[in-house]
Amino acid sequence: MKEYALILISTVLVNNFVLVKFLGLCPFMGVSRKLETAVGMGLATTFVLTLSSICSYLINEYLLIPLELTYLRTIAFILVIAVVVQFTETVMHKTSPVLYQVLGIFLPLITTNCAVLGVALLNVQERHGFIESALYGLGAAGGFSLVLVLFAAVRERVNVSDVPEPFQGSAIALITAGLMSMAFMGFAGLVAS
Amino acid sequence: MFIAVLAISALALLFGLLLGYSAIHFRVEGDPIVEKINALLPQTQCGQCGHPGCRPYAEAIASDESEINLCPPGGEATMIALADLLGKDPVPLEGVAAEEKPFALAVIDEQECIGCTLCIQACPVDAILGAAKQMHTVIEGECTGCELCLPPCPVECIHMIPVGVDTGSWKWPIPTPDSLEGTGTAAAAGQAC
Lengths: 193, 193
Fold this sequence. Notes:
The complex is a heterodimer of chains A (193) and B (193).
Chain A (H helix, E strand, L loop, with lengths): L1 H13 L10 H6 L4 H30 L8 H23 L1 H7 L2 H6 L2 H12 L4 H31 L9 H16 L8
Helix pairs in contact in A: 1-8, 3-4, 3-7, 3-8, 4-5, 4-7, 7-8, 8-9
Chain B lengths: L1 H24 L6 H9 L13 H9 L12 H12 L17 E5 L9 H5 L5 E2 L7 E2 L19 E5 L22 H8 L1
Antiparallel strand pairs in B: 1-4, 2-3
Helix pairs in contact in B: 2-3, 4-6
């Protein structure tokens, strides 16, 4: 039990995917203009990441390893992630229009989010079991959502503040992201790993 | 090698079948309310509401971006039918739509027509017949009286001629909520259009 809690804390805070591992930077910069879209993207990513890390664990464990095809891991995982995302979108569109309105446009964006593939590959690298894989995905997504929402809130404030002209727009956003990353470095050592 | 090709192909085929099945099984018809609104609009595609056609106007109404009183060809009857469908209060017609005009058809003065084809391009329902440097004429049965052909004409040879009521074209007046008392009035008005 303690082990699982450690995985969660370590992925959310210490080894945060965006600010420490620098994965998934594209949606981090792209979708953080408004707080509402950031929340939507965070929820959608959480959903997809957890599901895809479970699926890629299953594929790896019961297809690639028995057939000794581990060198095809990356392409198999990309296939799995794309299908999982597309299938989720179709099913969600039909069964839950409300959820689809909140998450809908973000779901296809996640297919190309490198954090999703990163989590699947890191799961294999660190020899995680089934529950560990799921928790690792959930934690990674939790960390992603946390910093995305925080960053969106910061950016909304930066937008109305007096920024020097050369720093306006993306420049100040990147500087903000760098400062946030440094702040998250403060969590290093919280979990020994 | 052979196993690898087979395994990935089988996986891809399986996923393809899954997505194909889900696309059929979970198909979602477009927003049903847009279809209903679109069915009430006169389909003249005249653009007098400020939208590029009837369907875009229907979408704008459905997403609450437009008022329901902007359709001159539909007139008051359409507005009341829309109000009934959407559970809104009837709004008096505004702007172009407000002027109560007798139904008129475009007629080209064939002596003056220079055969420039500009009115043909403007006509949303392809009711004008003609070719370059040939005299044009309006197909009476197709003309919706939208007046869109008037502005482009360089020699102002198109006139709106009101269509008088004769024994062949007389219709019962469309019932309005005022003229009907009691028995499901608004619904009846909606169907009559």
